[in-house]
Request: fold
Amino acid sequence: MLFIFALLQEIQSAGAGADRGLGLIGAGLAAGLAVLGAGIGIGRIGGSATEGMARQPENTARIQTAMIISAALIEGVALFVAVIAFLIQGKINF
Reply:
């Protein structure tokens, strides 16, 4: 965490190129956090669905369908955020 503060201080003292550097850092953080959040969310969905299927085996089909739909929606949002982050990186010129 401390290296981020040092990096931001260095960028702040860099002058004219600081805005571009901060834009690239922001786009990279956005893409990384989107993928990380999606991974955690899908993992929690899978774990909860497995637990629900173990508790109520007669509802396995309903639980599995809801799990797949939820995972697809989360993955779609994460993909959208990652694409937007990469588009932001493409807009920054040096």
